[in-house]
Amino acid sequence: MTVRVAPVPAGDPRLRPLLTAYHLRTEEEKGVPVPGPADLPAAYLAEIEDPARSFAGATVLLATDDGAPAGCVVVRAPASAPAELKRLWTSPAHRGRGVGAALMATATALASEAGAPALRLSVWSWREDA
User: Fold this and answer.
1) pLDDT tens, position by position, 23-51
2) What is the pLDDT of residue 130?
3) CA distance to 25, 120, 122, 129, 130, per residue, from 125 (Å)
4) Residue 71: which of 59, 79, 63 has the closest Cα?
5) Any idea which of 55-64, 76-85, 118-127 has the lowest mean pLDDT?
6) Residue 128 pLDDT greater than 90, yes or no
7) Residue 80 — very low, low, confident or very high, per pLDDT cuts 50/70/90?
8) Within the chain, how many helices (H) and strands (E) appear?
């Protein structure tokens, strides 16, 4: 197992399945499962279809596990303001392998290097592990 985390362009095609899975799972956990990506709320669908626009000005980190896309997180780290993490996701097939920890470590370092005084992650109340 080799987990690596690196910044990627927001339009990297490897992000699409990760963001799709994240949003489909979120809707399921909210109790409003949808049959497929086309049925997601418009804001979520926009992120999947055009992540470069949705995450403009942010840093997108992609985790790979033995070369396969395994997780992602979006970091908005303005200087002298709290940094924010969005869309922290580890593919279920890669959980328990250190992917989430690697994403968090890299995101934390990135925010610190940007001079952010704090790092925030907003999560749904049912996602206790986060």
Assistant:
1) 999 999 999 899 999 999 999 999 999 99
2) 64
3) 14, 15, 9, 10, 9
4) 63
5) 118-127
6) no
7) confident
8) 4, 5
The model's pTM is: 0.92
CB contact burial 30-55 (16+ within 10 A = b; e otherwise): eeeeeeebeebeeebbebbeebeebb
Tokens 């399921």 locate to 28
Tokens linked to 82: 């709290």
Which stretch of DSSP H or E encloses residue 109? helix 99-113
The residue type found at 60 is V
* Token pair belonging to 101: 């920890």
Closest CA to 75 of 89, 55, 90: 55
CA distances from 29 to 25, 26, 41 (A): 6, 5, 14
User: Contact 71/90 with Cβ under 8 angstroms?
Assistant: yes
Judged by DSSP in three states, 66 sits in coil
The closest alpha carbon to 88, from 60, 114, 113, 128, belongs to 60
Selection from 28, 129, 118 nearest residue 88 by Cα: 129
